[in-house]
Amino acid sequence: MPFARLPKADVHDEAGVYVVLRETGGAPEFLPSSPAGRFKGKDPSVAVERLRGNWVDSARVVYIGKASAATPKRGLRRRLEEYRRHGTGKKAGHWGGRFVWQLADSAELLVAWRPSVAGVDAAAEESALLHAFVQRYGLLPFANLRH
């Protein structure tokens, strides 16, 4: 679903993984500065050349994330809401994946999620998804900066 619809979505506050998808094909246009919120006073903007260097041609997935829910109320609902708020320019604790907000078409990005199966660690699920992506494309997704 589009990020804008998240506040009304039925997202449970449990551990899980999520992906950000760009449906439009072709080369993206990058904004010179990020509209995302500042976190701990840091500007989330990066140089357009760095964004171009991270771009993965033909991949629809632009970010893979997790919500570990290791502490109360830190599951998917809260993590996705933090991510959405960060993209709208609000102060929010979601620094990972910030490159997506410098895509000129970031308002059209979709987000999908899956709760973890009981007994399965969300970090392990995220790692497996990242590994599968790297196996297919040879690089991490555009906005993932580390495994």
SSE arrangement:
Blueprint: E1 16-21, H1 48-54, E2 61-67, H2 76-87, E3 110-115, H3 122-137
Antiparallel strand pairs: 1-2, 1-3
Rg estimate, integer Å:
15 Å
DSSP helix fraction: 10-25%
Separation, N- and C-terminal Cα atoms: 25 Å
> So what's the overall shape?
globular
Order of helices and strands: EHEHEH
Q: What number is the mean pLDDT? A: 89
Class from secondary-structure proportions: alpha+beta
Tally of contiguous helical segments = 3
Q: The biggest beta sheet, please?
A: 3 strands, antiparallel
Strand arrangement, major sheet: 2-1-3
Total strand count, please? 3
Proportion of residues in extended strands: 5-15%
Q: List unreliable stretches of 5+ residues.
A: none
What report would you give on this structure?
By secondary structure, the protein is of the alpha+beta class. The chain is 24% helix and 13% strand. The protein is built from three helices and three strands. Strands 2-1-3 form a three-stranded antiparallel β-sheet. The longest helix has 16 residues, at 122-137.
